[in-house]
Design brief:
The chain is of the alpha+beta class. It has helices spanning 10-33, 36-39, 41-63, 68-89, 93-96, 107-113, 116-120, 133-160, 166-175, 194-210, 220-232, 235-247, 385-421, 433-461, 466-490, 502-509, 519-533; strands at 252-255, 271-275, 278-285, 296-302, 314-320, 329-333, 343-350, 360-371, 423-424, 427-428. Strand 9 and strand 10 (427-428) form a beta hairpin. The radius of gyration is 24 Å and the shape is globular. 53% of the residues are buried.
Amino acid sequence: MTTSENPPDTSAASCALALASGMIGQAAAHLASTGGIEEHQVAAYDLAHGAAAVRTAEAVLAYAAHGTDEARIACAFVADALADLLARTAGREPLWGIQPGWADPARDFLEEHRDPARLAQLCGMEGDRHLDADFEMVRDTFHRFALERVRPVAEHVHRANDDIPEEVIEGLAELGGFGLSVPESYGGFASGGESDYLGMVVATEELSWGSLGAGGSLITRPEILARALVNGGTEEQKREWLPRLASGEIMAAVAVTEPDFGSDVAGLTTSATPVGGGWLLNGVKTWCTFAARADVLMLLARTDPDRSLAHRGLSLFVVPKDRAAGHGFVLNQSARAGVSTGGRMEGRPIDTLGYRGMHSYEISLENWFVPSENLIGGASGEGKGFYLQMQGFENGRLQTAARALGVMQAAYEAAYAYATQRTVFGKPIIDYQLTQAKLARMSVIIQATRQFAYQVARLMAKGEGALEASMVKAYVCRAAEWVTREAMQVHGGMGYAEEFPVSRYFVDARVLSIFEGADETLALKVIARRLTEAAGTGNELPRS
C-alpha cells in the first residue's frame, strides 16, 4: 500500500528521539553513581532495551528521508519506542534519576502517531528496503532458493524433528552461501568491504524466511568458525580450513557452552591437556547445535589448568569428527594422527520446542585427541580462544538479528494473507481496525529493525559496531516474539494447529533471545555495562 499524503514532519520525531536519548544518558549516569548495574539489575535491563530501541529509531529516521511511506513508518516506530520507554520508567523515576513528565514535550507527537486510526492506515505498507541492485540480486537469489528448496521441506523437518536434507545443504553450497565470510583468496566471496556484512544479512534473512532451522541457521556456524580463523588462524590453518568451509565440503558446529557455564564463558572446565603431537580433550559441552552432521567442532577448552586465569586460560580448537545421524551418536577414536588414545565422543540429543532440523546436543569428550596444528593460532593462540570466539560471536549476533527478521517477515506475510481470506461476522478480518493496527505494527517493527541491521552491517564493515550488534540482536529477537505471537493470534484457532506454518514461526522465534548471547546477559553484561561506563562523557549514547 502507498499513499499520496504529504510526508509527515519528521522533525517532531527527531525532537522526541532526542528526549529519549538524553533520558537514556541521564539514567545511565545515575545508575553508575548509585551502585551500578549489579545493584540495579531490573533498571539496567530496561535501560539496555530502551537504548536499543532508541538506536533502532535513529536508523529508521534516517530511512525516513526516502519518501512518504518511509517517513510514516519511521514516525510510527519512534512513537512506539518512546511510549515503551515511558512505560518502563513510569513509577520508577527516582531509580532512573529522572523527573516525571520528562517526555511531555513530545506529547503532541505521541498523540498524533499513536492514534489507532492513523496506525491502521499503515496496514499493508511494508516500505521499500532501499537496497542497491547488487544486494537486490543477492536477496532475489536466496529468496528463490528459500522458496523452491527450503520451504517445501520445512514443515516436515519441523514436525518429524528430522535432519535437514542433504539436497538443501548441497544447494546452499552451490549458491556460495557458506563462503560469504571467507575471503576471496581462500575460495570464498568476502572482499573485505561493506558487501561482506550486508550480503550476509540479506542472505540470512531470506533463508530464515524459508525456515529458521532448515535454512537461515545453516550458514551461522561456518560463519563463526571462518571469522575466528580469519582473525586468529595461522596461514596454514586458513589454507587448510577456509576453502573447505566455503565450498561446503565440511560443515561446522560450535562447542562453547557447558552445563554449568552458559554465558559465563570464563568459568569453562573442559580441559585440553598436551600430549605428544597434540592435545587430549576431556569434558562436557552442551547446546552444541548441528553437532551430529558437522565434520568439525569449533571447541573452546581450558589449556591452562590455573582456574584463576579465567578466560585468559582458554584456547580454541578445530576438532575433526565423523558425521552421524541426528538423533544421538557415539564416536570412538582408535587412532588419529598416529596417536592411539581410546578417545570417545558421545552426543546426547536435546529435544527442543522448535528450531528443529539443526538438532542440539550435549557432547561428552573422553581423551579425544586433536592434533597440535588444530589449535587456532598455533602456539601463539594459547590463551586467546575467548577473544577469538567472541569476535566470531559479535558477527553471529548480527546474523541472529537477520534470522529474526526472516522469521518475522514470514509470520507477517502469513498473517496478512490469512486476514484477507478469513471472514468473521460477515467481513474479512483485515477490515477490522484492530487487525489493521496489529498488521501495521508488525510491518513497522520489521522495517525499522531491518534498517538498523543494515546500519550495523555497515558499521561492522568499518571495524566498528560491536555494541550496536548486541543492541540489534537484543531488540529484534524480543520483537520477533511479539510479531510471531500476534501473527499466530490473527489466525485464531488455526494458529494453534500445526498444519499452518505460523505455529512453527512462533516456537522458532522463542529461541532467538536465548542463543548467541542470552537476552539478560547481553543486556546487563554488554549493553548496560557500556552505557554506564560511558555515562561520564555526556548524555549521548556511546558508539562503538
